[in-house]
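RECORD TYPE: protein structure
NAME: Rab proteins geranylgeranyltransferase component A 2-like protein
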Amino acid sequence: MDATSDKVTHVITDEQKIKCNFLVTALSQTPRSLFPGNLTKTILSKAIFISDGSIKASSKNEVTFLRLVPDENISLPVTVLEVGSNVHVSPQNIFVVYCWGLSQSEDSKKDLLPVAKKLFNFTNENSEKPKLLWSCYYNQVFVECNPDCLPHKNMFIVSPPSNELDYDFAISEAKKIFSSMFPNEEFLPRAPDPEEIILDEPQIETSENDRLH
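PREDICTED:
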């Protein structure tokens, strides 16, 4: 650190000192002493399930995407994504289901077990629901890192994965960081179309004898 300019000047890793003009790092790699002053934390409840059948049977084993709304058993809106062998993530007739939502209790199993019971058969009796073969529940903390709250002007901490299904937030954050680092540069300029690419052919020098022949 440079105390006079309040900037990060180098990083030490594996006994190597690397100079830098900017530092972009993940929150998990940031010392607590450098954490932003105001951290906005959101706790997500997530679960992974493996079943012997699809929650929405289809002859094509299509990818299934659902949004479950709260009811008398489910306390939070839950996003459900099911994939199978058609996208090469599991053997034939085995399905992987991902569930996630904003935690209501900071206990992922308490939040999402009612979802599992709604989607899967937990008994040995015959049922239209697929049988649950394996499950894993866990919580993930999402922290939005506001660059304005960082202790050093040239340091940027990227936020971990959030509750969003797409990449809009990640792209927006990357653009904001890039613009702070290079205000006069274009963020992700359009790549040229193939027909716009002109390749210079190498010039072949010929001697006087070659021209005579």
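COMMENT: Residues 10-40+144-181 form one domain.
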